[in-house]
Design goal:
By secondary structure, the chain is of the alpha+beta class. Helix content is about 25%, strand content about 25%. It is built from 9 helices and 19 strands. A hairpin with a 2-residue loop joins strand 18 and strand 19. It is globular and about 75 Å long.
């Protein structure tokens, strides 16, 4: 076995059955590491034909490991996932919030429970995943300056960059992680897979959305776990009750509301939900000002490496923020607001800022960390109404 220049020997690579983790494992083996592929099972719900989707992925992961010549093992974290990810997910939905289970899974399962298992079970030097991200030390995990810490950096492929989903992992975890795809584009990854005989993995459709929902209709899925709580649908401008619904957990902010008799109002979109009254507030048009906010409050972020200069002193920090992975970073200011909150002011208003989601903060190419959004500031519509009232 070749010893790498980074001083690492044995790497456990999380293999999912997809092309990204497959190529990650292949790259590491080519560099001389002893690579062990481990498939992690987090969910055991059966699909309509009685075959668990994760079983199909596991077969693909096993095929990948056999093809590139590395050992394969699987591990079951269904109980951990239920307790740490799915149960909190249901609770948040019941309260009207919309959490991000992928971020929570990375923090509590992949880069905590799974990483510890990998290090102990296989006496590994580090863990690797197929995420599109980079770190400030690359493969030099054992040579990095511990006083400086390891920084999480955006991937070269800005369209596939996944630092958004990694924004809650700890510094301790990051010190023992490799991201082999950080310098590659998705097209290059697929090309590598095809060149080494993994064409069918390269052509495999990429998984999107919430992992445990799969191809199922989300309202039907969530309805299996949460009881109906009927409420009214209210028009934001007139205050009229224009319909009813069976539970705010079926809906999210910014969503187009269908099957509701809004008559003269045309196409309407959800601008707010009230978990106490169970009311849903709607507005006409996808760009109604009630859908846009320029401020929000969040829990004090979990800073991955170190907090921005002056943050603890109450100074205003100028950073960039993302609310959704697909959005570009927006310049913002962040400052403490009480013991456990920050107030974030965006350079420009964003549509459908949703409590329960994460505000992810950047300083250039570095992902600093993230905090859960607790509430929004006034919408542009509310500010317009206040201005009109003041002028009367």
């Amino acid at each position: 076995m070749v010893k790498s220049l980074a001083g690492l020997r044995r790497i456990v690579c999380g293999v999912s059955g997809g092309v990204d983790s497959a190529v990650s494992a292949y790259i590491l083996k080519q560099k001389g590491y002893e690579v062990i592929g481990v498939f992690m099972k987090n969910w055991d719900e059966k699909d309509e034909v009685g075959q668990c989707m994760s079983d199909r992925d596991m077969e693909d992961a096993k095929f990948v490991c056999q093809h590139i010549g590395i050992p394969f093992q699987d591990v079951n974290f269904v109980k951990d996932y239920w307790n740490e990810v799915f149960s909190p997910f249901l609770k948040e939905y019941q309260n009207g919030n919309v959490p991000n289970p992928d971020i929570v899974c990375n923090r509590h399962i992949k880069f905590n429970v799974f990483q510890k298992y990998a290090m102990m079970q296989f006496s590994a030097d580090a863990m690797a995943t197929g995420h599109y991200a980079r770190t400030s030390v690359g493969e030099n995990l054992l040579l990095g300056d511990s006083s400086q810490g390891v920084r999480l950096l955006r991937a070269k492929d800005i369209w596939k960059d996944q630092t958004f989903f990694l924004s809650q992992i700890s510094q301790q975890a990051l010190r023992k992680v490799l991201f082999p795809l950080g310098e590659l584009k998705k097209s290059e990854v697929k090309q590598i897979a095809s060149e080494i005989g993994l064409q069918r993995i390269a052509k495999k459709k990429e998984s999107m959305g919430i992992c445990f929902v799969g191809k199922r209709d989300f309202p039907s899925f969530i309805g299996q776990y949460l009881e109906p709580k009927p409420g009214n649908i209210i028009h934001v401008e007139t205050g009229e009750v224009v319909g009813t619904h069976q539970g705010i957990h079926h809906y999210t902010l910014g969503q187009k509301l269908i099957h509701v008799n809004h008559g003269r109002f045309g196409k309407c979109y959800i601008v707010d939900k009230n978990n106490i009254t169970q009311d849903i507030i709607i507005a006409p048009g996808t760009n109604h000002p009630s859908l846009f906010n320029q401020e929000f409050f969040a829990k004090v972020p979990s800073w991955i490496c170190e907090e921005p200069p002056g943050f603890s002193d109450g100074r205003v920090c100028r950073l960039q923020c993302r609310i959704q992975r697909i959005e570009a970073s927006i310049p913002c200011t962040v400052s403490r607001c009480g013991e456990d909150q920050v107030i974030v002011t965006l350079e420009e208003p964003l549509r459908a800022i949703t409590p329960g989601q994460y505000g992810v903060f950047y300083d250039g190419e570095e992902c600093l960390g993230s905090g859960v959004i607790t509430r929004r500031g006034p919408s542009l519509y509310e500010l317009q109404q206040e201005k009109r009232t003041a002028q009367q």
